[in-house]
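Posting for a labmate who doesn't have an account.
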Amino acid sequence: MKRSFYEFLMTLRNSESVEPEAEFANNAFRDVSFPKQEENYQKLSDYLELNAGYLPSMTIFDEAYQKYQEIDRK
C-alpha cells in the first residue's frame, strides 16, 4: 500500500536540523490541517500555497515530493 506524502514527510523530521526539508517536516507536523492522507501533487501544492506560511519556498515542497515519488517506485 502506498503511503501518503505526509507519512513520507514525517521521516524527514529532525528538530535539531536547519535543513529546509527537515524544517518543512517539523512545521507540517504541527499543522493540524495538513492533508495527512493526500498523495496528489496538485492538491498538496494548492493546500501549501494557500495555507502554509511556514514554507518559505515551494521549491522545498517540490524537492521533497520528488523524493517521495522516487521512494515509492522502489
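Reply:
Got it, the C-alpha cells are right above this. The mean pLDDT is 95.
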